[in-house]
């Protein structure tokens, strides 16, 4: 929870969901520029509401920090409901396996992206 004071001047140095280091991709996959673009559009439409715009933590974990194990189970998590007990629904009626791969490639590309500098 954040509180603000009128006229306050303190800087906000919020960390991404408790992480202290920049993200690094847990695995490497190759994808075309078009697949990354499409993955970004799919992510924005289906994932950003919970996992944050641009894959920067929303109310749920920042997927840029997802482990190798998570990435190895990515399709089972997104399509198969492997994390349903944690509140992650299955998207099998909305996404194909190919679309899930594009989303995963987009998430991994965001994990290697340079952090955006903040204004001081």
Taken from the alpha-carbon principal axes, the silhouette is: globular
DSSP strand content: under 5%
Main sheet properties: none
Class from helix and strand fractions: mainly alpha
What value does the average pLDDT take?
Answer: 84
If helices are DSSP runs of H or I spanning 4 or more residues, what is the number of helices?
A: 5
- Contiguous runs where pLDDT drops below 50 for at least 5 residues: none
Order of helices and strands: HHHHH
- Could you tell me the number of beta strands? 0
Question: What key phrases describe this protein's structure?
Answer:
120 residues, single chain, 5 helices, mainly alpha
Structure description:
The chain is mainly α and 120 residues long. It is built from five helices and no strands. Helix 1 packs across helix 5.
Summarize the structure.
The two termini are 22 Å apart. 37% of the residues lie in helices and 0% in strands.
Task: Produce the secondary structure layout.
Blueprint: H1 33-46, H2 48-51, H3 68-72, H4 74-78, H5 97-112
Helix pairs in contact: 1-5
